[in-house]
Each structure stands twice: as structure tokens, then as C-alpha cells.
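Task card 7
Instruction: Convert sequence to C-alpha cells.
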Amino acid sequence: MDDDLQQWPEELGKLLDALKEHPEWDAAVGSWHRDHESMTRRVGSWVHARVDRYVHGTPVGYRHTSFRLLRRPLADALVEHGTRTPVLSPMVRQMSSQVYNVEVRHSERRTAGRRSRCANRRGG
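Output:
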């Protein structure tokens, strides 16, 4: 989960419910519609998805996000993995084929530039 509050903490319940409903899933990853994103961001995401599909074999339609819940065995496997430069999202998909997107709410970033709302609140 990011610190910019674009992802609603209340939506974690949807991810938890999805894991309860699907005991065979190893992870539930939040995803959302991209209607409010700029054209530049959507094009960049499209290019990234194509490269990701080619390099990592990510399925069509799957979205990597930081809003996710993992079952303990998958989390332990990620911790034990011996890479020096981990890229968590592709590693999750590579270590399990039972990782699925769950639709959640998402807000636009309301801060200017790259500073998060939490950073603005604490004066950072």
C-alpha cells in the first residue's frame, strides 16, 4: 500500500474477502479503472505492461500494484528469495500462478508534484 492515500485502507477488506472466498489463491492484488489518469500515464502503463508480459510472462489483463495481500507461504518465499535487487511485483507472479486482481476504489493524487499527502501533512 502506498503512502499517498490513493488506495483506500477500507478496501483491504475486499482483498481479505477474496482470499477467504478463494482458498487456492496465494495473493489478492487490488486494481482499479484508469479513467482518471492522464494520457501520458496510460500510454506509459500500456508500454510497461507489454514489456512486463514479454519479460516476465505476466498474463494479459493482470495489473501489478502495491495494494496487495499475500498468504504467509508466499510472503515467506519472497523473504527467503536470494536476489540482491528484488522487484516485488514480478517476483510475486513468478513464485505463484495463483495471484489475482480484485477491483478496489482508487483516488486521484491530489498533491502537486511527486510529494505524497502524508509527506505534506508532516511538513516534509
